[in-house]
Specification:
single chain, about 15% strand, alpha/beta, Isopropylmalate Dehydrogenase, globular, 2 domains
Length: about 350
């Protein structure tokens, strides 16, 4: 069998530790038998879970550590223990070339700090960004970044995010020339901060890049399906993401309450069950799991802490696709192209 992507996994990350993580790896292996795994964490707990998943008996390694990163641990504290924790060891496996990508469901801030320290940012990238897929009414999901790694961004940061997000959309969504928009308080060119206006001007002139810049979008348009990559700073992006997740839970809970309100409603629930099941699938965060730290000299994927085995498997699938499509090389080529044109424009 051909050797597939090597994924280093923090088995202790996430709300349920090795149970959901190894069950997710097992599910991912069934979908893609070529995957190889490196598990980091408490060996006794990992081995106990491995006995439940026979298909994980080959092409895996287990590295023991009793240390893990707590959900509340500060990034500055986590960095000091990076080499001895399950999360830090998984990231270092990428740095040392033992793995092609790292995955964890643990502390996001600690993970970003460790990844940035170990892997460093790519040439031409000032700051890495956290990107994820959001469900839409269109034919496919949309990529959104940054989702919390950088609370303040200048125009150059936003342009770099657009380049990285477009490469991610081409890799994961299979779109040759993604439609890119900047998140703003309006679609008119005069609206927004100076940073947004400057970034928009730079992107309008970058018609040589493999993306289509379509101006600004507002928060209520994120799920409409008319954009492939939404670019924003991490402060606004995190608020928008949490608001969307909260709205999805609100709609789900409201429907559940409405269908329990009377006998007639319960009868309506029985008739509506197929449509409601479809809605449940679309709103289930496990179907869109796998946020990615873009702009590093190595691949790092953040799984949701509460992800079930299906969600973990989806996050592993995202990591595998990025490895196979060499997203780091694509980002590098696009950045070189952007810098070359910018230099020629300034020289002229």
């Amino acid at each position: 069998m051909d050797s597939g992507p090597r994924i280093a996994i923090d088995a202790m990350g996430g709300d349920t530790g090795p149970a959901a993580t190894l069950a997710g790896a097992s599910r991912a292996r069934r979908l893609d038998p070529s995957l190889q795994f490196l598990f980091f964490g408490d060996e006794n707990l990992i081995q106990a879970e491995l006995k439940k998943h026979r298909n994980l008996g080959s092409r895996i390694t287990v590295a023991h550590t009793a240390e893990s990163i707590a959900p509340s641990e500060k990034p500055s504290q986590a960095i000091r223990r990076a080499r001895s924790t399950s999360m830090g060891m998984a990231i270092n496996a990428v740095k040392e070339g033992k793995a092609d990508a790292a995955l964890s469901g643990g502390n996001t801030g600690a993970m970003m700090a460790m990844a940035k320290l170990a892997l460093r940012t790519m040439p031409g990238i000032d700051r890495p960004a956290l990107a994820a897929l959001l469900p839409t009414l269109g034919e496919h999901d949309c990529v959104m970044l940054d989702l919390g790694a950088n609370t303040e961004c200048d125009a150059q940061n936003l342009v770099q995010f657009a380049v990285m997000g477009s490469a991610y959309a081409r890799t994961v969504l299979g779109i040759d020339k993604p439609r890119v928009k900047l998140l703003n308080i309006g679609t008119e060119e005069l609206k927004g901060t100076d940073e947004l206006k400057e970034a928009a001007g730079l992107l309008r002139d970058a018609n040589y890049l493999p993306l289509r810049f379509n101006g600004f979008t507002e928060g209520d348009q994120l799920s409409r399906g008319n954009v492939d990559v939404v670019v924003t700073d991490g402060f606004s992006g995190n608020i928008a993401l949490k608001t969307a997740e909260g709205t999805a839970r609100f709609v789900t809970d409201l429907l559940r309450r409405a269908f329990k309100s009377s006998l007639r409603s319960k009868a309506g629930f029985a008739l509506s069950r197929p449509a409601l099941n479809l809605l449940k699938v679309e709103l289930d965060p496990n179907n869109h799991n796998g946020a990615v730290f873009l702009g590093l000299n190595g691949l790092v994927v953040k799984s949701h802490g509460g992800a079930n085995p299906k969600g973990v498997a989806n996050a592993i699938g995202v990591a595998a696709r990025m490895v196979r499509n060499n997203i780091t090389r694509k980002i590098g080529e696009d950045l070189d192209n952007f810098r070359a044109h910018a230099f020629n424009h300034e020289a002229a």
